[in-house]
Amino acid sequence: MADLPLADLDAFATVARLRSFRAAGKVRGVSASSLSEAMRRLEARLGVRLLNRTTRTVTLTEVGERLLERLGPGLAEIEAAIDGINSFRDTPVGRLRLNVPGIVARNILPDIAGRFLKQYPGITLEVSSNDAFIDILAEGFDAGVRYEESLHQDMIAVPIGPRVQRFVGAAAPSYLEEHGMPQHPRDLLQHRCILHRFASGRIVPWTFEENGREFTIHPPAALVAETTELEVSLACQGIGIIFSFEEFLAPALERGELLPILEGWTQEFSGPFLYYHGRRHIPAPLRAFLDFLKAEQRRAP
Asked: Which single residue of 32, 179, 270, 278 could bond 156 by disulfide (Cβ 3.0 to 4.6 Å)?
């Protein structure tokens, strides 16, 4: 048994942790069928069943549970040992996998990622955009980016991007000409509004702030969508009032396709954070990105 392929054992650990061939294949960059074949090969070599498979689920047998428990620390040590070779290189190499929300992928990460990859050409950056809060370790990511209200207390968080962002309201000139300019957030209850639904299915209320006073409403919907581009496009066509990240609306505002509303009532909030688990080995690409972000913050005015 000493000649068991390490790759098959590592593949087993990934499948067992994620309870899914498809999810494990996504993490490892291979097909689900190739992983299934690797598991059949491993089980044949060991002479025992490690996984119970159905068309929808993957569960561990008792033997599989014991093997995973014993394998975990050993595979982590091997990963750390291989990653340690990076300390002998001029610059680290490897893959950095990040999970980020849409606003960060579109408006914040491009500039940061560009500067980072120029400084570390040996690192491959893989970015997945997802507005839902996920278990980054279970999904195979090195780190994630989320806003403060979504961070768990056991995470280590490092600022990334602007430290203050705003939600702003806007509408097309044609809409305001027909329906009038709202003077107070409560006026929006009499307007047609364009709402955003997150991947979780949640539609958040609109919160406005003026001189420390908050006013929250659940506006009536003319449109509910999950795609910001669609929401902005229809707002520009005069379908209704939109309330979103200032970065999303800035191009249409600059072109005059949208006009700001309730300018004294904008809501400011803390910018995003990169977060990761501190109780595990930090691979060299992530460590380089953390150092890069800290240096960026020191240079910020």
From this structure: 278
Q: Which two tokens stand for residue 7?
A: 């790759």
- Rounded to whole angstroms, how far apart are CA atoms 196 and 231? 8
Query: d(Cα 205, Cα 268) in Å, to the nearest integer?
Result: 15
3-class SS at 189?
helix
Structure tokens at 257: 């396709």
Alpha carbon of 90 to those of 114, 119, 121, 186: distances in Å?
Answer: 20, 12, 11, 59
Between CA 214 and CA 144 the distance in angstroms is: 30
Q: 130 near 26, Cβ under 8 Å?
A: no
**Paired strand residues for 128:** 99
Tokens of 227: 């795609």
Closest by CA to 195, choosing from 160, 219, 213, is 219
Tokens at 189, concatenated: 């209850």
pLDDT > 50? residue 1: no
Q: Kindly report, residue by residue over 225-284, the tens digit of the pLDDT.
A: 988 999 999 999 999 999 999 999 999 999 999 999 999 898 888 899 999 887 666 888
The identity of residue 173, as a single letter, is: P
β-pair type (143-146, 94-100): parallel
Domain residue limits at 26:
6-85
Domain identity same for 192 and 262: yes
Three-state SS at 244: strand
Q: Is 107 helix (H, G, I), strand (E, B) or coil?
A: helix
Strand 164-171 to strand 221-225: parallel, antiparallel, or no bridges (unpaired)? unpaired
CATH classification of the domain holding 111? 3.40.190.10
Domain total of the chain = 3
Distance (Å, whole) CA 15 – CA 130: 22
Structure-token pair, residue 81: 């040992």
